[in-house]
Amino acid sequence: MRDDAPAPRGGDMPRYIFATPLWALLVLVTGLALTAWMALGEWRGERDRVQALQRSLADAAPARLREPLAGAALGLRAMQTVLLAGTAQLDQHTFDSYQRNLRSQEWIHGYVLIAFAQRGVGVDGQVTYRYQYVAPLQGNEVLVGFDVARQPENMEALRRARDADTAAMSAPFPLLQFRGQRPAGDMGLTVRLPAYTPGAMPTTVEERRVRELGALAVSVRLEPMVRQALYGRILDHMDVEIRDLGALPAHARVFASAPLPADPAALQLRRMEFGGRTWELRLWPRAAMGEWAQLRLIVIGGSSISVLLALFLWSQATVHRRALELARRMSARFGESEARFQALNEMLPALVLVADARDGRITYANRAARSQLGNVAGTPLEDLFADAVQGREAVAATLGVGTWSSQEAFVVRGADAALWVNASLAMLEMDHVPHLLMVAGDTSAQREMTERLRYQAAHDELTGLCNRREFERCLRQALLDRDAAGVASFALMYIDLDQFKLINDLSGHTAGDQLLVQLSQAMRRHIRDGDLLARLGGDEFGLLAFGVDQAQADRLAEQVRACIERSTFCWLGRSYTVSASIGLVLVDQPGCTLKDLLAWADTACYQAKEDGRNRVRVYRDDADATRRMGEMEWASQLRRALEQDRLLLDYQEIVPLSAGAEPVTRVELLLRMRADDGSVIAPGVFMVAAERYGLMPAVDRWVIRTALANFNTLHPCGGRLQSCAINLSGASLEDEGLADFILDSIARNGVPPQRLCLEITETVAVRDLLRVVRVIERLRAAGCRIALDDFGAGMASFGYLKNLPVDVIKIDGSFVRDLGHDPMSRTIIDAVTRIGHQRGAKVVAEWVDDLDTLDLLRELGVDSAQGFALHRPERVLFQRDNTGQPPAR
């Protein structure tokens, strides 16, 4: 070998061997750099989201704080309206009732009281505002008689509220009733509204000051009010300090969840204005805010991938390193999976708890469980159940078969109050140790809503008593219990207030509603525990008294009647006394039905009214009761006919008697009813029941509405029909809205009022002459014609005729029928005809059944006549079928 030959390149192999770790290092550095770049981008994005969340929470805080204050102002406005309406009998008991009805403590957290301060003048001539009524009174007695003028913060708010008639809020100040008791939480404020004397709402400052009666105020503790208003995400993520900008330095701080740092990061400033005051809100984030799971995932994942790639290259140099790196990668994966599992559980809204199956103690609770149940770590799982037996059975069942699911909601002991939940338990193994997993959903809100809806469905909204549906359900159940078990007899009472409509007419429906509330409270105080009082509708009440005999039922009914009679109701300066008619049925025999009992009680109540009202009547099975039961059945059929549009109209023509009279068509409408089986029933069968059970106003309105809507299709002559006569009942004439209804129907259907004749019987006219005259004069002024029907059948007819402005007098048919053989009837008809003509009225004779009578009527000068001899009633044209005849029955 030559000396100058190149030496072997033994160094090539070592360089190749060392190149592998160099490449691994390069890949690692590159991967980490890329991971850092991605992590930086994720960090910036998460920071922006966190800042946006902080701004959103800060923006929401003023509105959340304003909600309870606005609710307090709304409650005060309701109380102010009551005082303006003239509630002259305001006392502490009534004030307590109003406070309970407002239920302020349910939606104003930190609510202390609502109070009324009476304006007055002290001995030194200074104006005083002393608290006169406070609700609730318990715990706040110290405020009664206290002068608001001694508190500058309150007086300043009071003056602003009085002059502007808007809700005014005071500056924070120590609440008087809590001094010395709650050193850390006795700061509060008041929201105020003025109270004015009864009348219209004053509109100027001068009028408000003159009519100032006093001031209304709602007192609220600041600490619980603010904490509840900001409860949730705001206080979860932010610390808050609130200051009243207009308050004295000693009382300027309203609330602070934590001390304000010297240099708070990301400080948010907001203002809340309410009631003439301004609060400054300072919000800064808590130490840990934001969800950094994605950032951790990028860092861990990117680093792991970089390391794994580097390890893969490094493993080419040594198997031992590759094994170590593989173990490290598996460990990282396991930690990442465990972190994701825990993060997922923390975000779930359901309650998730894990307990060691060996001793049953809880080892893990997610965020929702900690928030609802408090710190339960180490607590036995079965102790969460309010029913200890149920808790033990649930745990035992899970240990036995591996799973347990609740069939219905049960109560779990919560941190603040009991919770209703639906829960399931299952067995699982963690680190080779058996555990119990409990997953539960909070159903408290749904259950509360269900209970509230169930209560509203079974109770009357005005009085709080059971309604008719619930009363009938309880009565039906009482009948079943009695027939099945033979329990003691019970009594059913039907209570109907006497002349209740008079109070509604004189003082309005608001007064009537208040009277019903007052009477329901009075009756409650006089019934026994276990008895059921219900409002059946309108001014009707029902009472079920259990375990009574006839004598006990009589005494109880008399006590209820006497308590109603003793009640005095005051409204706007008027005092009313009321009474009640009570029908009593003792249920001491099996076999009664719900329908029978209600009908018997109604019959007995009606008998009490017929006997003079304000008394108790026990149902007796006699002929009168049977007759009234029949009338009730006809009344029920008539109601169904009205609802199903099964009333019918016939017309009978009124024929002129004068030889030279112009041939015109005038008719009177006659009512019929189509029965359930299709037959036609004459009015004499059901009209007595209609009048007795107050159905005539509805029937009369149906006739008026139907006739005017189909005026040109009543008679075959169509639009040439000169006039149509409609009978009005006495009950309809007592309706103040009758005239308005008639005139409105005339205008709506475009019928000339001169073509409508309204007939009023003489008996009805003389029963309430002044009311009838007012209705007649108003209808005549609009152009309607008025006829006095059945004239001569009543008493003192001629004397009343002088005062009744009528256009037509219809002689009662009993005189017309006897005209041919009774000289007295001839004399009466002659006298009525002369008097009618003297007053400018037309005279019509009814019940003309033969042609001979027509000649006698012409001789006496009667203008027109109607009866079977002239025209038999026919169905109105629009209710006939296509053949022109009434439908077959």
UniProtKB/TrEMBL annotation:
<dbReference type="Pfam" id="PF00563">
    <property type="entry name" value="EAL"/>
</dbReference>
<dbReference type="InterPro" id="IPR000160">
    <property type="entry name" value="GGDEF_dom"/>
</dbReference>
<dbReference type="GO" id="GO:0007165">
    <property type="term" value="P:signal transduction"/>
</dbReference>
<feature type="transmembrane region" description="Helical">
    <location>
        <begin position="16"/>
        <end position="40"/>
    </location>
</feature>
<dbReference type="InterPro" id="IPR035965">
    <property type="entry name" value="PAS-like_dom_sf"/>
</dbReference>
<dbReference type="Pfam" id="PF00990">
    <property type="entry name" value="GGDEF"/>
</dbReference>
<dbReference type="InterPro" id="IPR035919">
    <property type="entry name" value="EAL_sf"/>
</dbReference>
<dbReference type="InterPro" id="IPR029787">
    <property type="entry name" value="Nucleotide_cyclase"/>
</dbReference>
<dbReference type="InterPro" id="IPR000014">
    <property type="entry name" value="PAS"/>
</dbReference>
<dbReference type="InterPro" id="IPR001633">
    <property type="entry name" value="EAL_dom"/>
</dbReference>
<protein>
    <submittedName>
        <fullName>Diguanylate cyclase</fullName>
    </submittedName>
</protein>
<keyword id="KW-0812">Transmembrane</keyword>
<dbReference type="InterPro" id="IPR042240">
    <property type="entry name" value="CHASE_sf"/>
</dbReference>
<feature type="transmembrane region" description="Helical">
    <location>
        <begin position="295"/>
        <end position="314"/>
    </location>
</feature>
<dbReference type="InterPro" id="IPR006189">
    <property type="entry name" value="CHASE_dom"/>
</dbReference>
<keyword id="KW-1133">Transmembrane helix</keyword>
<feature type="domain" description="CHASE">
    <location>
        <begin position="133"/>
        <end position="230"/>
    </location>
</feature>
<dbReference type="InterPro" id="IPR052155">
    <property type="entry name" value="Biofilm_reg_signaling"/>
</dbReference>
<dbReference type="Pfam" id="PF13188">
    <property type="entry name" value="PAS_8"/>
</dbReference>
<feature type="domain" description="EAL">
    <location>
        <begin position="631"/>
        <end position="887"/>
    </location>
</feature>
<dbReference type="Pfam" id="PF03924">
    <property type="entry name" value="CHASE"/>
</dbReference>
<feature type="domain" description="GGDEF">
    <location>
        <begin position="488"/>
        <end position="621"/>
    </location>
</feature>
<dbReference type="GO" id="GO:0016020">
    <property type="term" value="C:membrane"/>
</dbReference>
<dbReference type="GO" id="GO:0003824">
    <property type="term" value="F:catalytic activity"/>
</dbReference>
<keyword id="KW-0472">Membrane</keyword>
<dbReference type="InterPro" id="IPR043128">
    <property type="entry name" value="Rev_trsase/Diguanyl_cyclase"/>
</dbReference>
